[in-house]
Design a protein that fits this description.
By secondary structure, this protein is mainly alpha-helical. The chain is built from 6 helices and 2 strands, in the order H-H-H-H-E-E-H-H. Helices cover 58% and strands 10% of the residues. GO terms for molecular function: DNA binding.
Length: 118
């Protein structure tokens, strides 16, 4: 089992938020669920750049942190839907702020990325 050499500092609110929201697709997953996308297959279609395995792993992590809850419907095939918890809904202003910042600064960032790739 992996043991961290440097202990995590979870006394800092930013570190706590990053612990929960870090992961390339977690903010997109939360935003998608907030928009009404419930099923893993729908999330895979929404975020087609990510491997389904990665989406599933990040869904599991968000569920472990209490950001999402999973509702499993009986029957075959098995039907699973995800919903935001109250704590998960509390992340929405952060996710929306990230979206607004990204939209506002897109052109600048695209120029920087293009320069780095040259």
């Amino acid at each position: 089992m992996y043991e961290r050499k440097i202990p995590e500092d979870l006394e800092c609110g930013i570190n706590v938020a990053m612990k929960v929201l870090s992961g390339k697709w977690k903010p997109c997953i939360i935003d998608g669920i907030n928009q009404g996308i419930r099923r893993p297959s729908e999330l895979h279609a929404l975020i087609d750049a990510a491997a389904p395995r990665v989406i599933n792993m990040q869904l599991r992590e968000l569920e472990e942190f209490g950001i999402l809850y999973k509702k499993v419907y009986p029957g075959l095939p098995l039907k699973v839907e995800y919903y935001l918890t109250e704590i998960g809904e509390g992340t929405l202003p952060v996710i929306q702020a990230l979206d607004q910042w990204g939209n506002k600064n897109r052109e600048h960032i695209l120029k920087v990325v293009a320069q780095v790739q040259d």
